[in-house]
């Protein structure tokens, strides 16, 4: 608010001549044209409602009268004595409310906007803020572009007398109303028109986004202000750290920065690293690298941190050649190689199937005295299992657990999928146990992967055990889960056990699907139980919702019936 009060700078625009001034400071009661009213307000020391009612018995009811009065006052760059700019603004404020009370129709959005600029020009920030919030509430629009157009148009129409103070105040108003999306839109709107919001305005939007849990908006605001070279203050850094804390990623980001730099860094470094990582996660590697170079020029991050993150960005998009070039540049500049940058290269090699190269990097990492961490082993385990190097994958997996390293839930699910795909469901189950021991609670995706894994190896007991473990943990079972469960049991060759869960679905009021019936019929046909398959088929077509079997299932059943009869 203080920055908004003190930061009103003049912008070049078309010059609008001020209205003519008369010699008298009083106006006859019968005259109530916009020109006479504005002249009266501009030359009176301090008007009251009583004075206005006495001077203008007939309120300016015609549409456009109030707009014309306020526009005339807004275009007056330097009011003459005895009325100062503050007095004129207060007179306009009194006139605005007096005319509202006397008029049957509400004031237009343009009237609000013109008066806000008048009040902001006179540094009457509290009055302007209250009025602006009322205007936003009464004339809200989604998106906010129509309101922004009206507000900026009033600013331009005010001529050379206007300052940008009112524009900064607009961002504050949206933030105070806890409308961070609209505040961000206002920031972008103004930036496109070469009016850069103040640091306090950006901070206000960050605060609103943090308080309302709109974390994506917070990162977009932080990115915009950094791109526009409005650099973070201590308050900005504290707000960004607060966003990280509420997202639950603060500890992980701090650990990552420490792993790169070798020691703890200031909160400002952590905040800017978090911004770069967020941009990379959005899939905008080039934009993130550009921002990192700018941060490096301003000494916002250390050299080794910036170059390590650039290697990470290239690895994320699978550009191994650029990642290697950035690695070489990092070495030439004398930057310290670290576990994070090695792990990035290990990951991209594993994803592309170059597991041997990834293993060599691990050995090089160990020879330098650098310690692998959970992500390093996760890449190697996943890569080995996906590329049919099960023995080495199991070796790395055992080493990871022996060192007490358990990755986050998302990485665990990737490892589980790779293990189950390789038929190592027992090891996958061990990983889930280690996750629980470390306080990581498995979700539905984790259990789904285990069920699929047990189904592939034909372990009926394992599938059923997972179901009851999920029941014990209170995880909700939807139709998709039961489809996966029944599919696994049919894959194990046990349609009878699978059919029990159809009745469970009915008790839970979950709709039976054609896919489930197809799986059961096909499984019974494969087991040679044609009688039960026919009963299921009859049940499908006689249901109220009438489930239609697939063509493949129907033909399988027909062939089985013909075989039995012959």
Descriptive account of the structure:
- It is a single chain.
- The chain is mainly alpha-helical and 566 residues long.
- It is 70% helix and 0% strand.
- Helix 11 (199-212) packs antiparallel against helix 12 (215-227).
- The longest helix has 18 residues, at 85-102.
- The protein is flat.
- The protein starts with a helix and ends with a helix.
- Residues 1-30 have low confidence and may be disordered.
Number of strands: 0
Radius of gyration: 35 Å
Shape: flat
| Uncertain parts | 1-30
> Which secondary-structure class do the elements indicate?
mainly alpha
Largest sheet: none
Helical region count?
31
Overall pLDDT level: 86
Task: Indicate the multimeric state.
Answer: single chain
Helix content: 55-70%
β-strand amount: under 5%
In whole angstroms, the N-to-C terminal distance is 91 Å
Protein name: Pentacotripeptide-repeat region of PRORP domain-containing protein
PPR repeats: 303-337, 338-372, 373-407, 408-442, 443-477, 478-512, 513-547
Pfam families: PPR, PPR_2
Family: Belongs to the PPR family. P subfamily.
What is the secondary structure topology, with strand pairs?
Elements: H1 2-6, H2 34-43, H3 49-55, H4 65-74, H5 85-102, H6 109-121, H7 125-138, H8 145-157, H9 165-176, H10 180-192, H11 199-212, H12 215-227, H13 234-247, H14 250-261, H15 267-281, H16 285-297, H17 303-316, H18 320-332, H19 339-351, H20 355-367, H21 374-386, H22 390-402, H23 409-421, H24 425-437, H25 444-456, H26 460-473, H27 479-491, H28 495-507, H29 514-527, H30 530-542, H31 551-565
Helix pairs in contact: 2-4, 2-5, 4-6, 5-6, 6-7, 6-8, 6-9, 7-9, 9-10, 9-11, 10-11, 10-12, 11-12, 11-13, 13-15, 15-16, 15-17, 16-17, 17-18, 17-19, 18-19, 19-20, 19-21, 20-21, 21-22, 21-23, 23-24, 23-25, 24-25, 25-26, 25-27, 27-28, 27-29, 28-29, 29-30, 29-31
